[in-house]
Design brief:
globular; 8 helices; Rossmann fold
């Protein structure tokens, strides 16, 4: 399985998140899966990629050319894809991936997550998306999603994504995942169209 992982490139986050990235990387390697990720050798990205490689696993990094010119790339990647820009990077990662796991991250991780959820909602793909809610990191975001549902801004189809408290349960979810189509996105459109 090609597992795309979105996560932070910051070295300044709490050690518990590095532990989760390391655990995920080791398990990806043990399972014989391939890591698809943003290509950095720093932050959680770097910890994840190093753990996959140290376990004998395969790593594919995908990075836009402007960032690839910086000294932040993971030189030990088995394959390194350089794209024109961030938009092409996300499209390439989506194309390569069979599943998406989301470790804690900042604005870039949030943007990747919301795009992949939007594409799932629009039935552009049926791949699993799992938030790794390490130490409750994603609780505020999950609460925001619930706010959307209550306000009628999104259909309350919580199967759009899964939430796992640890790496092991996230991988168990991926193994048991059966693709299903979400309901039509547009609330009230069914009544209009008959």
């Amino acid at each position: 399985m090609n597992i795309c992982v979105y996560c932070s490139s910051s070295d300044g986050v709490a050690p518990v998140f590095f532990t989760a990235a390391d655990t995920l990387g080791r398990l990806i390697a043990q399972r014989g899966d391939t890591l698809i990720y943003g290509g950095a050798g720093i932050g959680l990205m770097g910890a994840l990629a190093r753990a996959v490689k140290s376990g004998g696993g395969r790593v594919i990094g995908v990075m836009p050319q402007r960032l690839a010119a910086e000294p932040i790339t993971f030189a030990e990647a088995d394959e390194f894809v350089v794209t024109r820009d961030m938009r092409e990077r996300k499209a390439r990662m989506e194309e390569l991936a069979d599943a998406f796991l989301v470790l804690p991250g900042g604005f870039g991780t949030l943007e990747e997550l919301t795009e992949i959820l939007t594409l799932r909602q629009l039935r552009e793909h049926t791949k699993p998306v799992v938030l790794l809610n390490i130490q409750g990191f994603y609780e505020p975001l999950i609460a925001l999603f619930e706010h959307y549902y209550r306000g009628g801004f999104a259909k309350p189809w919580r199967d759009l994504y899964a939430v796992s408290e640890d790496v092991e349960s996230a991988l168990t979810y991926l193994d048991a995942y059966e693709p299903v189509l979400p309901p039509r996105k547009w609330i009230g459109l069914e009544e209009v169209l008959g």
